[in-house]
Amino acid sequence: MRTLKVLLDGLAFPEGPRWHDGKLFFSDMHAHQVRAVDMTGKSEVICEVPTRPSGLGWLPDGRMLVVSMRDRKLLRLDRDGLKEHGDLSKLAPFDCNDMVVDKEGRAYVGNFGFDLHANETPRGTTLVMVAPDGSARIVAEELMFPNGAVITPDGKTLIVGESFGRRLTAFDVGADGALKNRRVWADLGKSVPDGICLDAENAIWVACPTASEVIRVKQNGEVTERIKVETDAFACMLGGPDGRTLFVATAANSDPEKCRADRTGRIEMTQVEVPRAGLP
Q: What is the pTM of this model?
């Protein structure tokens, strides 16, 4: 069985890992920081986001985009600091979450749809696209907690994990970024998808926090591998020099106060055979 080793620990709650420019960038959500770590474990704080950072991505010109959860904004890291890039507050009914940014710089941002930590009843919500100019519009509705998302190498398919739907849902991406032809890409049964990443064989690695594992899933739901984690797995990303390092963001729980107090968050990693593909 494949095992994980710790690259970085002492984090509050790592989420949204992205391999970029030779480093793994991620949000330490409940510590209100975006960080980066290299393959030796050396880390740095990239920026502070008081209203909790989540999904990360990059514009074609290299500037980083950061989801600001509580105020439902998309921020842009310019040379002189973070600036508002898009306002989703009228389109996302609750905290914004993960996202994927395509090659054109269009950001597809999910949101909770309900107050998760107050134990509200789950309900369907929106997926919002923020264009490179900062304008925002709803491109899908009635998704059950849209979370991690990927875009295939040809840019024509977006796949999003619906955490409370226990499925991966695919859409065709139009020339204008619109989504259509909604369909189930994989029914995950009892597995709850959080962060996801795509490999070169068109399989998707899925972090499953309620099962303390990461699974590799083919289209239509066949699970080809399971990797157990010591605590819970909340996100994953393929990266490293050859794209074959699977990074896993783990923590003992997701409660904000407990995360800040206990600091059980880790970036763990292992080598796999099939490299990354597509976006993020």
A: 0.96
